[in-house]
Amino acid sequence: MSVNRLKELLKQVPSHDDVIGMLGHLKSKDDHASDRAAAIVGATLIEHGLKIIILSGFVRLSPTETKNLFDADKRGPLGTFGDRIKMSYAMGLIGQKGRNDLVRVQKIRNLFAHSALEVHFDLSEVSEFCGQFELIDADDTSGLNHLKYGV
What tens digit of pLDDT does each residue of 128-142 get? Predict the structure, then answer.
């Protein structure tokens, strides 16, 4: 498979059914590898969602213009998760608590993606950090993680 094909795969956005299937699959596993996958996949889905809501506030852009803004390889100004969080907040698309929670998601994703150690959500450091979410109800055991407040 060529590098270009891999880049094309990165651009594809999963359907609603695909997302539900991925999340269901991750939830059905009860091991530390699935924690790593859930952290990375979940954050990636949120990052794609931020791109969509940011674009909704822009004028209609050509594919090239969109790529120039959002492509991390081209060092686009909105190419990273952190950049998208900042822009979403600056545009008023998310509030302060939402921004704070998304920064937490970003930090958790980075931990799971880059740590050479076996990290999982049961580690006290990770669990305590997750307890700081402001909009996600950490005590919700239904697996749905309902929002505490309206957004």
Answer: 999 999 886 655 544
